[in-house]
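Exercise 3.2. Students should predict the tertiary structure of the chain below and write it as structure tokens, then compare their answer with the key that follows.

Predict this chain's 3D structure.
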Amino acid sequence: MQTDYVQRFLFEELDIRGRLLCLTGAWQRMLDGRDYPEDIASLLGHTTALNTLLGANQKGAGRVTLQVQGSGPVRLLVADCTAELRIRGMAHYRKEGLRKTNERNLLGDGRLSVTLEDLQSGRFYQSLVPLEGETLEQIFQHYLSQSEQLPAYLRLYADDDALCGLLLEKLPGADSRDPDGWSRVTQLAATLTLDETRRAQPYDLLTRVFPEELMRVFRLYSVEYHCPYDEAKVKDMLRGLGREELEAILAEQGEVVIRNEMCNHEYRFDARAIADLFPYH
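Answer key:
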């Protein structure tokens, strides 16, 4: 069964385009070792799903980073995706206050930021909007309609094993092609469930959900979780701090510990390892 993909498609007679996403292995690797509560995993899953759908529309050496910052128990949700559809993400939250409640209470007030970065030139564009909506899906849909200036329809699902997303965008000529087309396909899209997404091939799923529509389906894009353990990069950073500062940390704590929250990696250096960083001193 094909999973960890983004499938782009177009309703040719309606001027409506879409992207379908399903992640299993890549999503499970992102969650591995983090022990997020169910509600937190779901919110991070929604964030990762939308971010990957946005990343699938980028060209060149780009990166899309999506952040939700809130005043509630969930302080930060962040996911990023390169143009090659390499993803990573994390959540910061306070354990107190995580009683059963709705998504908006978990997030509180805050803002959503989406950053588009050109990794070759270093240029980036960032948009910031307040959180508007009762669910993360509603917040994201509101952002899409405002930022893309196209009516958008979004469905997001996530559990510990899989996440999926469906994004439809109404192009400017859609109403002149078929005044009822947008209403028809969004009603059909509302029937989509997480279970059928992870248990069906993308083309079969799309033709089942939209059986009467003429559809052009593009090639499938693979998605992978990419957050490698990079000790060499951490060592370069430590050398930049200097031996004196590192030895002060060793004297106080007995070791130097570097925590990469985004990748869920921890790097530990004892006195011998720190000395090896400065062989000519």
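Discussion points: The chain has eleven helices and 13 strands. The first strand starts at residue 5 and ends at 11.
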